[in-house]
């Protein structure tokens, strides 16, 4: 487990940690520079905070000098998660998340809590395991699915967002680097293999790979510094399309209509330089955000 003291870092582990750290910094910078948290899922950020708080309980009894790299990063992940939540709730309060996304977040949380002891039972049989191990397993399961509310929000959003390709690349690649780290640890001198982290890490990476495929293969949204995704884009992904859904609800269609080129909101956006594509989504999202931030 990640809490073992006799742990040998390798390049992939370090790259994974750096990628994860950079993703947090990019998101914070994007929110501040654009003076908006548009398109960022508050539910997903709350779930991330719960992931880190439940995973890093060892901060209460681990001395900082034992593993200083780990100690600093753990504090950063917890602190930055709550900082982002604070920005979204207090400074740039804005959310388009509807009941469905909150239900999905609650289902992810409850399902992870229920699955954690069962997963330990499967992989450790009746071997004694501590509360810390249960919480660590819970965090691994929850992290693999906590991106789903974010995908639901992007599906519902047809206006410029602060989510961009750089954030998605760094956030998605961090787990990919961790998978390579686990491979190196297994075939290296340690011969260490903890099945729980790789299994749910692969699930998490699969969501990001599927979403990245949708993100970079669509042709009607510019990817210069980022862009937005709509329901038709998401339906092209296998995992995301099936779990998030392929058809917009009446409520979502009503919201999308508010952002079409013929609506008052769209006319206002056009006056600020936003360009609209054939499917009524912005093709110059980042340009508009840059203008609005000035």
Can you describe this structure?
The chain is mainly alpha-helical. The chain is built from 13 helices and no strands. Helix 2 (42-55) runs antiparallel to helix 3 (68-91). It is globular. Residues 1-6, 218-230, 247-263 and 265-294 have low confidence and may be disordered.
| Low-confidence segments | 1-6, 218-230, 247-263, 265-294
Mean pLDDT, to the nearest integer, reads 74
Number of strands: 0
Strand content: under 5%
Oligomer: single chain
Shape: globular
Order of helices and strands: HHHHHHHHHHHHH
Rg over CA atoms: 20 Å
Total of DSSP H or I helical runs spanning 4+ residues: 13
The biggest sheet amounts to: none
Q: Report the structural category.
A: mainly alpha
Question: What's the end-to-end separation, in Å?
Answer: 47 Å
Which percent bin holds the helix content?
55-70%
Can you give me a brief rundown of this structure?
The protein is mostly helical and 294 residues long.
Spell out the key features of this protein.
66% helix; disordered N terminus; mainly alpha; 294 residues
Secondary-structure map:
Layout: H1 11-34, H2 42-55, H3 68-91, H4 99-124, H5 131-145, H6 148-156, H7 165-187, H8 196-217, H9 231-234, H10 238-244, H11 250-258, H12 264-271, H13 285-293
